[in-house]
Amino acid sequence: MAVIDMLSRLNMDTSVLRARMATLTQQTTTGLKTQALGELGAALPQALDMKAEIHRQQTYTTAISAAAGRATGTQAALTQLEMVASNFANNIAIKLDPNDPQSITSAATQAKAALLQVANLLNSQQGGQYLFGGTDLANPPIPNAATIGTSGFVTQIGAALGTLGGGNAAAVLTSSVTAAGSNAAGVTPFSAFLSDPASGLNEARRAVPTADGLTLPYGISANRNANATSTGTTTGSWARDLLGGLAMLANMTPAAAAAAPADFTQLVQGVTGWLKGSATAIGDEAGALGQTQAQLDQLQTTQANTVTALTTQLSGVQEVDMAATITKLQGAQTVLQASYSAISQLGSLSLVQFL
Questions:
Q1: How many CB atoms lie within 10 A of CB 285?
Q2: Residue 267: pLDDT over 90
Q3: Which burial class, exposed, middle or buried, applies to 277 when counting CB atoms under 10 A from its CB (0-12, 13-18, 19+)?
Q4: Of residues 24 and 156, more confidently modeled
Q5: Is 159 contained in some domain?
Q6: Is 61 part of any domain?
Q7: What pLDDT score was predicted for residue 309?
Q8: pLDDT at site 16
Q9: For residue range 297-350, what is the model confidence (pLDDT) as tens digits?
């Protein structure tokens, strides 16, 4: 009976060892203490809190990364827009001379092409979303970019230029600024959404959530400034100023210059200043966006570090010490083999040996 009791105890011990071996084998395979969170015991609340925080931080990181990509696309467009404004202000408009008809014709041709270029830049997209469309992400801020040269504000500016003469250069410039700044349907080139005071015209800038209750604005609408302040001759919007100045150049003709050379010269000075103001404001806008990009980069770094730290802490709760676990597994294997050997030896004893 003693041998039978001993065999029974050895079998029970062996069953416990096999279960222990199975657990240790699984831990060395997965690196986890357990694959069921519920088996973490007292460490479960801590593990759940850390998992939730990691997920929250990763969600913010994803949103910030997407915003950073859109900001980069916006910055690229602003760079080209500033180049257009600066080129026309400093190299083209400033050189117009009523006694040089060819320069006027050339400037008009270039301005017509630039109007289309600017419209397309303001319709820039990133990931299928329009960058300058405010919260109307699916529709272009300038719906008819291909025909912007015949849009209402360009036509009105052309009509104002048709009245040039008799000392009215300042009035023509004022009329042109008014046309460029209009939100009226059929005049403005911008979408109905962006032109509506109840929607895009006054909506808050597009922003990205960076933490609970905190957002960082980064969006720029095509028809109004974000951070920049336009000064001098202006509609209050660097984009409208650029389009308006180009529209004036596109409508200029050698005949108009010859008919009123003094007024033409004065008007050219006004247009040059208008375009210079636009270039300056675009540069200011790009600078402000650059600061926002730096903030986004810093936030990404901070959140990545936070996730790394939390993941390390979670590992301490969920994961095993692999070296120690392997040692335990090897020890359990040794003990189990000894147990099997003992059972084998006891099983081979004869009845005579018991007596």
A1: 24
A2: yes
A3: buried
A4: 156
A5: yes
A6: no
A7: 84
A8: 62
A9: 999 998 888 888 877 776 666 565 556 556 665 665 676 666 666 666 655 544
Give the 3-state secondary structure of residue 126. Answer: strand
Per-residue model confidence (pLDDT) at position 354: 41
Alpha carbon distance 319, 27 (integer Å): 8
Q: Which of 291, 312, 336 is the last residue of a domain?
A: 291
Altogether, the residues listed in the chain come to a count of 355
Q: Please determine, for residue 116, whether its predicted confidence score (pLDDT) is greater than 70.
A: yes
Q: What is the CATH number of the domain that holds 135?
A: 1.20.1330
Among the residues of the chain, which ranges form H helices?
Answer: 2-30, 44-87, 101-122, 152-161, 169-180, 192-195, 238-251, 254-259, 261-318, 322-347, 351-354
Average pLDDT over residues 143-161: 97
Q: Is 246 exposed, middle or buried (0-12, 13-18, 19+ CB in 10 A)?
A: buried
Task: Specify whether 340 is located in the same domain as 242.
Answer: no
Q: Which domain holds residue 354?
A: 322-355
Q: DSSP assignment, residue 32?
A: B
- Position 280: which residue type? T
Least confident of 47-61, 100-114, 279-293, 335-349: 335-349
Number of domains in the chain: 2
Retrieve residue 118's tokens.
């600017």
Report how far residue 193's alpha carbon sits from residue 305's, in angstroms, rounded to the nearest whole number: 40
Q: Residue 122 has what pLDDT?
A: 98
CA distance 206 to 251: 35
Is 65 part of any domain? no
Per DSSP, the residues of 132-200 read TSTT-TTS-SSTTGGGGGGSHHHHHHHHHHTT--SS-HHHHHHHHHHHHT---TTT--S-HHHH-TTTT
Q: Is residue 140 located within the same domain as residue 272?
A: yes
Together in a domain, 350 and 244: no
First to last CA, the chain: 11
Please name which of 205, 210, 204 lies closest in space to residue 295, comparing C-alpha atoms: 210
What is the pTM for the complete model shown? 0.79
